[in-house]
Design a protein that fits this description.
The chain has a single domain (25-166), classed as Serine Threonine Protein Phosphatase 5, Tetratricopeptide repeat (Alpha Horseshoe), CATH 1.25.40. It has helices spanning 2-17, 28-40, 44-57, 64-77, 81-94, 101-130, 134-166. The chain is 80% helix and 0% strand.
Amino acid sequence: MRKLFLSSFLLLFVFSCVPVKQQTPMDALDWFGRAEARLKEHKFEAAEFGYRQVVDNFPRSRVADEALFKLGYTQVILNEYDDAIASFSKLEELYPDSHWLFDARLWRGILEERRDCVASLENVRKRLKLSGNRKDISEEVRLLKEENETLKARVKELEKLLGDLEK
């Protein structure tokens, strides 16, 4: 009787330890695919989250460099410029042979210039508050217009490069 009880208990124990259904965690390609779909749907926060999952959890996957680039791209769209600069810099550091490197450097350069222009504009605003001289103000406006035209040209160049890449 004791053997029957122990045998029954052992069988019950063994079968209770078997999982009913095991879920597998998402892999890099799953996260990347979902992020791509969210990007196409213009759900940029969700796309950013998906790309970040790939970058943080699967840095050696075959899509990690592209995910890092697209993370930076979505950060630009979301006006997270400093984060985007950091993402593009990280791509250069971690994936120096990536075919996304040229684009990342271009974006980083444009964003760094944008940051410098914003800082310059703030400086001009402060000086304008202190200065009442119309001639100085006119010169500052002229210089800012020149900077603006340069930035517009660079943005067009970037848009052209991105358009060529999508083809």
